[in-house]
Write a structure and sequence with these properties.
Elements lengths: L4 H8 L4 H6 L4 H16 L8 H8 L4 H35 L3 H9 L1 H5 L4 H5 L17 H14 L5 H16 L4 H20 L3 H16 L4 H13 L1
Protein name: PP4R1 phosphatase
Keywords: Repeat
GO molecular function: protein phosphatase regulator activity
Length: 237
């Protein structure tokens, strides 16, 4: 009743490999780009009409198609709600996490937006995987690590102080020693945000431990760049 059946059938047929060869090689990418709009129009009650098409696109051999979906998966999660997201989108999201950097960046840019929509228990599972974002296919892809630091500043609010100390603290310290100054600068802000998180939640012991670690690692560093990092962290704070 919402979309004429022939029009919906025409849209769903865009994932047919034969059409990509005879009509337009980019047709699957166009299909992926417009999918959140189609899902919004149909409503979550009609998601079953699009589910198979979405899964087909998510496993498309062209990385540009998967990249398009990765950039919009957080928008689709809002449309579908938490139950459908947990059942149908989380497996796709997990696949994108292990994909090429060109696809992973789409997930990374909206990591906070996606994680905040998950239940606490499901969200906590990703603490173990955030470390993987530090490693990229190309180490010169410093913008990837910059984006990770920016997202972590937002993500801090989603986890308790103990989880931040056990998992996110290590990532922050690694990024603070990055070879690229832009990454180090945003990471100093991340370190200060972590300290603010501890003290705002009365986790003073964790805060003090982290400060002592910063003093040992940077204040007493044998290299001037480490001591400079400590000065910048103090300046940001």
């Amino acid at each position: 009743d919402i979309i004429p059946q022939p029009l919906l059938d025409q849209y769903l047929s865009m994932t047919d490999p034969a059409r990509a060869q005879t009509v337009d090689t980019e047709i699957a990418k166009h299909c992926a780009y417009s999918l959140p709009g189609v899902a919004l129009t149909l409503g979550r009650q009609n998601w079953h009409c699009l589910k198979d098409t979405y899964e087909t696109l998510a496993s498309d051999v062209q990385w540009k198609v998967r990249r398009t979906l990765a950039f919009s998966i957080h928008e689709l999660a809002v449309i579908l709600g938490d139950q459908l997201t947990a059942a149908d989108l989380v497996p796709i999201f997990n696949g994108f996490l292990k994909d090429l950097d060109e696809v992973r960046i789409g997930v990374l840019k909206h990591l906070y937006d996606f994680l905040k929509l998950l239940h606490v228990d499901k969200r906590r599972e990703y603490l173990y995987q955030l470390q993987e974002f530090v490693v990229t296919d190309n180490s010169r892809n410093w913008r990837f690590r910059y984006e990770l630091a920016e997202q972590l500043i937002l993500i801090l609010e989603l986890y308790n102080p103990n989880d931040v100390y056990d998992y996110l603290r290590h990532i922050a310290l690694t990024l603070c020693s990055d070879k690229v100054s832009e990454v180090r600068w945003i990471s100093f802000k991340l370190v200060v945000a972590i300290l603010q998180k501890f003290y705002a939640n009365n986790a003073n012991a964790l805060g003090l431990n982290f400060i002592n670690e910063l003093v040992v690692r940077f204040r007493h560093c044998s290299k001037w760049v480490g001591r400079q990092a400590f000065a910048f962290i103090c300046q940001v704070g």
